[in-house]
């Protein structure tokens, strides 16, 4: 029987309810987070709010003190679930490298038998225009695609995630395009919950002082739970309150956590900043894009043929003749690679391209390269199988010469 997408998933995610819920590989930490939220609220309800029911002239006000945190905690937990159990904006992997991007790279030629031989490879970066300014996007070896602007590969989940903010170990999920607003609402709501628990616990201490005409110490002895809750919510507030403030700043300037940490010292222009109000509207009021992944869809049997690209990660052990020739230098994810990258762009004439490659290559490489080009051209003629994203970087004339920035 055909497998479903979530059963053949190449990322490190964990799926529940037959692929309806997707978590990061560290989803277990979610249990700790749940405990850290539910336990103090339970203690608060039993040891503090319950005793305050009859402290108000209005009977309902007393019960509201008890019911409000329960309802609000449910609200926080729903936000937590929305953050951690849905697709954060994973860009589906390509089944093979984007064929139209094959370049003939003279700068990355390899020494073989004392002779310089060229290598077929991709440019590591591309330039796309965002709001009229050039933005460099990088090629992801794992996902075999050029990442859309603001997309980054999460090493924990092993996926490229759109508008990648960070991987949050507390929610066990990437924070990206599709769950950032829930994440922010979760963190800010948790901060409000801390303030509420702290304030009402302090109020209960005050009530005990008045009731027994005692000192604050005596009141604190009477309700140690209030003291513990005040300390706990105070410390938690530093964490979630600080995080709320930080993300308010990030939203107002339209940055992600990743961009803020990575480009902080660069002083580069933020091409995404559209003004404070528009930045907030962008995060909270734009329509959420549907997921690009249908985790429950059946995987098609068709396995498109990959061009014979040899990378250090997918070298075919049987093909020892050209592993050295076509070896692509391992390039760190965020390394800047420049250089002249000549392009085999117009594939009208196979002989021209082969002749071009042969004239530059060594004898031993000719056969393999011509095979490579054959395969590229052949599969191109068969059917273009490269997945296209919603953004366009296809204008080769425009972006043919990547600039170093
Ligand atoms: Zn990736
Ligand atoms: Zn992640």
What this model shows, in words?
It is a single chain. It contains 10 helices and 12 strands. With 405 residues, it is an alpha+beta fold. It has a 3-stranded antiparallel β-sheet with strand order 4-3-12. A hairpin with a 2-residue loop joins strand 3 (103-112) and strand 4 (115-121). Mean pLDDT is 73; it is low at 105-117 and 305-405. Bound molecules: zinc ion (ZN) (2 copies). One zinc ion binds next to loops. Its EC number is 2.3.1.225.
What share of residues are in beta strands? 5-15%
Backbone structural class? alpha+beta
Radius of gyration: 28 Å
Give me the number of helical elements: 10
Mean pLDDT: 73
Provide the spatial order of strands within the biggest beta sheet: 4-3-12
Number of strands: 12
Order of helices and strands: EEHHEEEEEEEEEHHHHHEHHH
Q: Can you tell me the residue ranges where pLDDT is under 50 for at least 5 consecutive residues?
A: 105-117, 305-405
Estimate the global geometry from the Cα principal axes. Answer: elongated
Hetero groups: zinc ion
Task: Calculate the terminal CA-CA distance, rounded to whole Å.
Answer: 50 Å
Kindly state the percentage of residues in helix. 40-55%
Q: How many strands, which pairing sense, and closed or not: the largest β-sheet? A: 3 strands, antiparallel
């Amino acid at each position: 029987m055909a497998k479903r997408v979530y059963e053949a998933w190449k990322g490190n995610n964990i799926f529940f309810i037959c692929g309806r819920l997707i978590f990061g590989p560290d989803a277990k930490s979610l249990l700790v987070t749940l405990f850290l939220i539910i336990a103090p609220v339970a203690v608060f309800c039993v040891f503090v709010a319950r005793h305050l029911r009859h402290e108000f002239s209005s009977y309902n006000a007393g019960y509201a003190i008890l019911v409000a945190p329960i309802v609000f905690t449910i609200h926080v937990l729903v936000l937590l679930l929305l953050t951690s159990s849905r697709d954060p904006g994973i860009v589906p992997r390509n089944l093979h490298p984007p064929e139209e991007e094959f370049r003939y790279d003279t700068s990355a030629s390899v020494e073989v038998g004392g002779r310089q031989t060229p290598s077929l490879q991709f440019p590591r970066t591309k330039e796309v225009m965002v709001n009229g300014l050039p933005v460099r996007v990088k090629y992801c070896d794992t996902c075999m695609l050029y990442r859309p602007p603001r997309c980054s590969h999460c090493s924990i989940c092993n996926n490229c995630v759109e508008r990648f903010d960070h991987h949050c170990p507390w929610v066990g999920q990437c924070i990206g395009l599709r769950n950032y607003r829930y994440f922010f609402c979760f963190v800010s709501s948790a901060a409000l919950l801390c303030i509420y628990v702290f304030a009402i616990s302090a109020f209960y201490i005050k009530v005990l002082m008045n009731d027994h005409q005692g000192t604050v110490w005596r009141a604190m002895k009477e309700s140690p739970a209030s003291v513990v809750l005040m300390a706990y919510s105070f410390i938690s507030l530093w964490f979630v309150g600080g995080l709320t403030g930080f993300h308010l700043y990030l939203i107002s300037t339209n940055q992600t956590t990743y961009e803020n940490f990575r480009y902080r010292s660069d002083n580069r222009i933020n091409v995404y900043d559209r003004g404070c109000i528009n930045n907030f509207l962008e995060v909270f009021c734009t329509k959420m894009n549907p997921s690009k992944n249908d985790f429950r869809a059946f995987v098609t049997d068709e396995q498109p043929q990959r061009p014979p690209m040899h990378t250090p990660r997918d070298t075919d052990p049987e093909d020892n003749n050209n592993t050295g020739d076509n070896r692509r230098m391992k390039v760190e994810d965020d390394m800047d690679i420049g250089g002249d990258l000549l392009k085999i762009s117009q594939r009208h004439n196979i002989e021209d391209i082969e002749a071009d490659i042969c004239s530059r290559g060594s004898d031993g490489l000719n056969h393999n390269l011509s095979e490579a080009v054959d395969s590229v051209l052949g599969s191109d003629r068969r059917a273009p199988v490269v997945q296209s994203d919603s953004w366009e970087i296809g204008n080769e004339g425009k972006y043919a010469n990547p600039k170093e920035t």
